[in-house]
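Reopening: receptor protein-tyrosine kinase still failing for me.
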Amino acid sequence: MKAAGSRTMVVRPRLPPWIIVCSVWLLRWARTGEAQAAKEVILLDSKAQQTELEWISSPPNGWEEISGLDENYTPIRTYQVCQVMEPNQNNWLRTNWIAKGNAQRIFVELKFTLRDCNSLPGVLGTCKETFNLYYYETDYDTGRNIRENLYVKIDTIAADESFTQGDLGERKMKLNTEVREIGPLSKKGFYLAFQDVGACIALVSVKVYYKKCWSIIENLAIFPDTVTGSEFSSLVEVRGTCVSSAEEEAENSPKMHCSAEGEWLVPIGKCICKAGYQQKGDTCEPCGRGFYKSSSQDLQCSRCPTHSFSDREGSSRCDCEDSYYRAPSDPPYVACTRPPSAPQNLIFNINQTTVSLEWSPPADNGGRTDVTYRILCKRCSWEQGECVPCGSNIGYLPQQTGLVDNYVTVMDLLAHANYTFEVEAVNGVSDLSRSQRLFAAVSITTGQAVP
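Support: Ran it again with your exact input. Result attached.
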């Protein structure tokens, strides 16, 4: 038969005419319903199935599956029953076995229409305006038999709006949507069942789903797909895994909570990019050539300091150029430096066996401010001119090494002896240098010792 909008419905002849007409309108409506929310995982959607559902009806002459085409000629299915003339109806419709996966709390969304009993003449006392929803948990498919005593009642489903013969004439749609929860579930799957006790019902669609929080990256931590908890108010705590080249912030592990509605709540803790990497969006990218990042606590890569370089990506420090060095106490962000040049304008004054030395600072301090001076004393023979260290009997005022001021007094020298004094300027990288020492030197001969 042809209905409004040139859509074809194929029906069994014993169903009442109101169901046939209403089915065409409702199935069109069902195809344009709300899109699936991103947080839902669909286990069953009857209106999306294009082949026969083949659910179990008991008795066989109760619920009937109706096949049709929508406006796009897509096959669609609905189940209907309208045995209101006889009392004591007990018509069961059971879905196929539904595997639940990791879900513990299941949602069932029903879309249906229901006829107002007052609009049906001669059925008072036998007509009902509700039907019952049941479920049965099991680890496997139990076959086609319905054992009613095994099923647990979820709820009695009533229509918010029922329609009359007048609504059919005016083509008014009165589609009801009801959502119920099941849980917590512990077995691998379950059946749903619908019990008709004497109503005129068109079960337009059945959608079964559960909610989960979909995988996201937050604060450089990956939070995986997480199924919601078994209770409505439960929160599932999830620990995040740092993205590549990131690490957990000290004593602040990344965590989030998945709510019962499939929404991630405010994150706690975070991950930070490792040394040599900086954050870019939800990833850590390596520092480019000529840049570095020495610590995960730094936010961004920095350009290499003066007289240093990095010739590869992902550097945590920059190497010094030839003849330049970095002292062990130098932070990686300071420039590489070199030893100072020799002191200038070295002069002396002899008083018998005491010598006073004085000099000017070096022309080049090597780029550092920690310049000090050290004195090397050598005693040289008269005959061969060979020199040896002066030994520990010599006194220095204020001291031999670590001099801050540019003068020193050397005491307790031998009388009538030849000495050479070397004055060297040093800084924090002098001992790292493999270059020749730079110093100022003076040779003297002591006079007669004090009586």
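Residues 17-31 form the longest helix (15 residues). If you still see a failure, please send the error message rather than a screenshot.
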